[in-house]
From TrEMBL:
Molecular-function GO term, any one: transcription corepressor activity
GO terms (BP aspect): DNA-templated transcription
Species per Swiss-Prot/TrEMBL record: Anabas testudineus
Signal sequence, renumbered to the chain: 1-18
Origin: domain of life: Eukaryota
PANTHER family: PROTEIN SCAI
Coiled coil: 168-195
The name this protein goes by in its record: Suppressor of cancer cell invasion
Length: 579
């Protein structure tokens, strides 16, 4: 029905003006009707994407494939018949931009569903071409606020892709342009969404400034550093070392921290963790230089990143649904990772028997868990908090290899696991108390997650540095590579370490996370500001401290790094003297 209406409208457009239908060549009339058919079909398929299940690996692929096919045909069709469409259909440049924007959105959502960073490059190519070719330039001259909103949304989506590709210089330019567009929009139209768009600007500005330390060139320009997994960044296994053959296949990245910097349903902690679980995009320079011959690429290069679900403030129902879907589809010899960055929920009383539901956990969203219009409340202290992911809630999923990271004020609740099924299980748990100087920075992201994302950035932060010169940064990074090799050997050579750690050690992503966790634990133990045991990370099972986080060799390395950064006085130096 929609297609028929669209075709009638196309014919009406063709026949307006001085010409009659007979004056217009049949071939040109067919070109316009074919274009209208493809345009309408593409809109139908694109709108249907929101009805696809967000979880599961297989259900959505064929639908995405059909949508890509139609948009590829539509894009090529408008390129081949631009002159006819300009004169007979009245094709405007913003309409071409809208098609390109939809293709960019398709690639971005395909990235979200596959975690393959090459699709981000494709999205960037289309978004970049829209700006370079000024497809939306004429929108501001039309008295149609809904068209200007399309342009503003395009900017917001382009900024998200640039953030994920670490194109921070371009992000700053786009934010400035978006600010000017919003100012023009709010002055020309009496709209109710001015505060909403101003909030978007504030969020992205805070996101860009979230890193506590910047790397500077000699001319004081900021160096953009990448923290995705790169060739040579993971310490290799020693020859003949026997570790598990498990591979990280799925990851749930959950963000539910109050008052943390966010942009587009992505908190800064989520943003950092998703990059820690991705490889550096392939051939970025060559892929982004093809904007002159822009074509939808139906089969970008395949990369082996773990599949990720990004859940911003999920309800318990949503979280459990995604967990179940990941668990169900987890391949053999694979690992499910659950990352929780969330506000802590503490038990209200003590019971005689302390089980996996008696220690609290982390908060899940309450907004959509309502009964008869009112949020369900606990009736008495004997009942457990229902809007909370308790350690016991994860027990069914320990039937398969499970790797848990908890960054929360109640992370230690997850020490109270029992490995019921004998499968590999490790939990890395954040400190629950930080010194005031660190706590004051918590809105810009957690220190624990920062260590897992960029150990040198986090180490520099606890040393009170605001900036670091590029040459020193590179020397410190090279030194850290040596430190990480030593930590890897400490883990694999320990005779008392729990075998679960070794079973996960064969996967590069998990190996690097474990090594960074040990480095974080050792650094905080030596730092003079971190005095309480609650300020140190913990793990389940426990690591043998003397072999790892309290190793004299590792302590010596940390003091050497502090000396390199000219801050040795911030750390206890008795380890150096006794080494």
């Amino acid at each position: 029905m929609c297609v028929r209406v669209c075709l009638y409208m196309c014919m009406y457009i063709v026949m307006t003006g001085a010409e009659t239908e007979d004056d217009i060549p049949l071939g040109e009339r067919k070109t316009v009707t074919d274009f209208c058919y493809l345009l309408d079909k593409s809109k139908q398929l694109f709108n249907g994407l929101r009805d696809l299940p967000q979880y599961g690996h297989k259900q959505w692929q064929s639908y995405f494939g059909r949508t890509f096919d139609v948009y590829t045909k539509l894009w090529k069709f408008q390129q081949q018949h631009r002159q006819v469409l300009d004169s007979r259909y009245g094709l405007k440049r913003w309409q071409i931009g809208e098609v390109a924007s939809k293709i960019g959105q398709l690639y971005y959502h395909y990235y979200l569903r596959t975690s393959e960073t090459s699709y981000l490059n494709e999205a960037f190519s289309f978004y970049s071409a829209i700006r370079q070719r000024s497809y939306y330039f004429q929108v501001n001259k039309e008295d149609r606020p809904e068209l200007v909103v399309k342009k503003l949304r395009y900017y917001a989506r382009y900024i998200v892709v640039c953030l994920l590709l670490n194109k921070m210089d371009l992000v700053k330019v786009l934010v400035k342009e978006l600010s000017e567009e919003i100012e023009d929009y709010t002055q020309r139209f009496n709209t109710e969404d001015q505060l909403e768009w101003n909030l978007v600007l504030q969020e992205v500005a805070a996101f860009v400034e979230a890193d506590p330390v910047v790397v500077l060139n000699d001319n004081n320009s900021v160096v953009v550093t990448s923290n995705r997994l790169q060739e040579g960044s993971v310490p290799p296994l020693e020859q003949g070392m026997v570790v598990g053959q498990l591979a990280l296949a799925d990851a749930l990245i959950i963000g539910n921290c109050n008052n943390q910097v966010k942009f587009s349903e992505l908190t800064i902690d989520m943003f950092r963790m998703l990059q820690a679980l991705e490889r550096e995009p392939v051939n970025l320079a060559t892929q982004t230089s093809k904007q002159g011959t822009l074509e939808p690429n139906e089969k970008p290069a395949k990369r082996e990143n773990p599949h990720k679900y990004l859940l911003y403030k999920p309800t318990f129902s949503q979280l459990f649904t995604f967990l179940s879907a990941s668990f169900k589809e987890l391949p053999a010899n694979s690992v499910l990772l659950v990352y929780l960055s969330a506000t802590g929920v503490f038990p209200t009383g003590h019971s005689d028997y302390e089980g996996p539901y008696d220690f609290g956990g982390v908060l899940t969203n309450t907004n959509r868990d309502v009964v008869n219009g009112e949020t369900v409340q606990k009736r008495n202290q004997a009942q457990k908090e229902m809007h909370c992911l308790h350690p016991g809630d994860l027990l069914p999923f320990t039937r398969k290899p499970l790797f848990v990271i908890v960054d929360s004020s109640n992370s230690t609740a997850y020490k109270n696991f029992t490995n019921l099924f004998g499968q590999p299980l490790v939990c890395l748990l954040s400190p629950t108390v930080y010194p005031k100087s660190v706590q004051d920075q918590s809105q810009r992201g957690s220190l624990f997650t920062l260590f897992l994302y960029s150990p040198l950035l986090a180490f520099s932060s606890i040393c009170g540095l605001n900036s670091i010169r590029r040459g020193l940064w590179e020397r410190a990074q090279e030194f850290l590579r040596k430190v990480f090799r030593d930590i890897g050997q400490m883990i694999t050579r320990s005779r008392t370490i729990d075998q679960a750690f070794l079973q996960f050690f064969g996967d590069e992503f998990l190996r690097l996370l474990l090594i960074r966790f040990v480095f974080c634990s050792a650094a905080l133990r030596l730092h003079k500001l971190f005095r309480e045991s609650r300020s140190f990370p913990e793990s389940y099972p426990e690591l043998p401290k003397q072999d790892t986080v309290e190793s004299t060799l590792l302590q010596k390395h940390i003091l050497e790094l502090a000396t390199m950064l000219d801050v040795p006085s911030l750390f206890w130096d008795n380890a150096m003297e006794s080494y």
